[in-house]
Prior knowledge:
Order of helices and strands: HHHHHHHHH
Number of strands: 0
Largest sheet: none
Shape: globular
Structural class: mainly alpha
Distance between the termini: 35 Å
Radius of gyration: 14 Å
Number of helices: 9
Helix content: 55-70%
Amino acid sequence: MTPAQVEATARAAHAGQTDKAGRPYAEHLRAVAEGVRARGGDEEQIAAAWLHDAVEDDALSLEWLRGAALSSRTKDIVLAVTKREGESPEEYAARILATPGALLVKESDLAHNADPARLAVLDEATRTRLTEKYARMRALLGLVG
C-alpha cells in the first residue's frame, strides 16, 4: 500500500469514531503519524502510526492486517502496539520494546494522548486517571521527560 492508501484506509476504518474529547478520531491518527515523522520515523513506522489503533478498536480485523499489502515490519509494529485483553502494562511495554520500530510509534501516541490541550477538555477525574496511566507507560518504556 502507498502512504496515501494507508492513510485513506485508516481514515475510512475509523470513520464516525471520536476520541474521549469528542473530536474525530482521524485527528489523533494524523497527529501520531506526524509525530512519528517529526521524530525521524520511516515510512513503515508512519504507516503503523496510521493503523496503530485499528485492530485494538476493531476498526480493522486481525485477518485484514495479516493479508494487507504492508511490510512485515509495519504489521509487527501494529501488532506490538495493539493492547490485548488481560495483558498487564508490563507485558505490553515489553512487547513494544522487543519489536523494532514500535517504541517510536508508541512514544508519538503517548505524546498526543498526554497533550495538555487534549486533556484539558476532560473532567478532572478522567484527566488525572489518564495522566497517571500515560506517565506509567512512559516510565515502563524508558521514556523520560
